[in-house]
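Q: Is it fine to ask for two folds in a single conversation?
A: Yes, each is treated on its own. Send the first.
Q: Here.
A: Result:
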Amino acid sequence: MKGRKFVIFIVVITIAGLIKCTKYEEPPLIFNPESLQLAPSPKVSSIIPKDSARAGVREIIINGENFGVTPDNNTIVFVGGKITEIKSLSPNQIVIYRPQLELSKYNKPLDVVISVQKALELAKIKNYKINIPYEQYGDFNNYTYNLFAIEVDKQENLYIATRRALLKYDGKEIVRVGGQLPSDFSRVSDLKFGPGGFLYALVSKNVLYRLDPNTGAEEKYLTLPKECDRLDFDQYNNLYTAKKDGLFIVKPDKSIITTNLYQSVIITDIRVFNNYLYVTSAENIWKHRILDNNGTLGDQEPVLNVKNQGADFSRATISSITFDKDGMMLVVLKNHPNYSLFVLESDGTLSPYYKANILPKFIDQIVWGNSFYLYLNRGITLTRDSVRVYRMGMVNTSAPYYGRDNL
């Protein structure tokens, strides 16, 4: 027993001696900070628009430095914690598309965060607001008929033509203007303000009425040679109208000029802008210069063919157009897989007004108000329980609606 204890003692002494005589060496580092090639941290100098992106703003510009632009040094932008799509990127500027947010985050202070791969620090813009882009305007759920056409007066009152009734919405309540309209008004295809302060309504295939917007009193104005669906006025109070059997010009004295234009072409909208008459079919947009105060039209000039815009547009059809005061054309398309409202860009391509799926997918008609609101009518072709009117904020005002602006 004593021998065994002696052996253990010798072993312990030997190990202790070895430990004392061996120099300690640290194990190799798993991670060497000096070997990491860090990117400079991003910095922000300004954001445009400043403080908030109000309704209608399509893109947000972030200026600064050290933004990563290579695949191994890429940049990500978060707005309110959500990754946003980048339109363009340089070391000193980022352009992002307006983001789609949860409803509860609109109009609330949010953080805009820029993250650059391999940079240790983030760049932040605090308390930035994304204003709500549009809102349902008026409660039409209790109306059992489609909203065939809408129009806005100079006081920003919204007029709505529905089955045998003219409605008016002042932003507070919807009222019926006058009594029940004649059976001709079972369907109204278009509604525009024009000479005398009347609302001009195309009804019953080829009959043009005018309505008193205060009393709802109706007057049969004239009968057109053929069925017509769309109308607009020029600065000389000439009225242009068409559907599928040619384009007609109605002069202020009620005389009608029958043109040889657009025979067997189904017209979906008509709009006068900058001394041109724009005419749309389901697939095309054309324009004619208005040559004089008699409404004489120049040659047909092509503006757009939707089918040339790519595969996503193979089933898309044009239903409504309008312009802002600087000439930007807005185009409503039906049957596009993702979007409803488009901008005709200067290079002839169509791009969605908002890149994110922000707006309602289905729109029938657009009418600009007198300031920074665009009205979206979703009440013509959808089922009655889904009719809606929306009011969309814009960054610009409208091009003239001559029938309204000449009042």
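Q: Second one now.
A: Result:
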Amino acid sequence: MIITLSILGLFLIGFVIKRIQASRIFRKEVRTLFSQSKNISTHAFHKNQLNKLPEPVQRYFNHVLKEGKPYTSYVRIKHVGQFKTGIGKNWVNIKGEQYATTEKPGFIWKGTTSTFVAKDMYLADKGRLAVSLLSMVNVVNATGEQYDQGELLRWLGESVMYPTNLLPSDRLKWSAIDSNTAKLNYNYKEHSLFFKITFNEIGEITEMETQRYMDKKNLETWLIKTTDYKLFNNVLIPTAFDVSWKLEKGDFCYAKFTITDVEYNKPERF
């Protein structure tokens, strides 16, 4: 009995140490993210920037941004929701915190469930997915060109939560498709990315579709659906996200997130 209690005590001590170490690493990663990107909030949105954009894109920016709104440089986000680790798996509850930069593309997200912690990131121009069980055993540490592309796409798609990042620039261009859809092209270093974006009649983005690597081999159709727009920091943003893969065997929805908190231009951890 004494031996059993000693083993349990050592396990608990190890667990606490691992949690502390993981928190320190995450805090350092967040600091690194923010330190690599410049403050661009001295720039402001003006409606004359929209003059040559497709009509649904103009409708969107007129709906979500106010004249003179400063550009977002840094973002921090909290969410709750549900997540599936694979096709045929059950939903698990998840809560997350995320930090993003705009002048230099980058983000880091940590999602926590009762059994695992996942980290998604695009940091220093590299993508990475890491998963650990109970913050102790690393079970996934995925990197490579496909993850560079996938994580940069995630950052770009989530710009609907910081929409000054979707305004036209040297990197980002809009082109017309029809009265309710437009194409967004984004070029950064060796990456040439796109989204086909659907807008509703009042100007909200409702769907974003592209091609993303599901793993290191398979390029699949990736779909983000956005709803429930609310005012945060005087900007209208969607707060409900359903994220799916459109596969030959059928759609696979693997994430349902609800945004609970968004703050701009506070380059520090919650």
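Q: Anything structural to flag on that second result?
A: Two points. The CA atoms of residues 209 and 223 lie 5 Å apart. The helical segments are 2-35, 55-64, 145-157.
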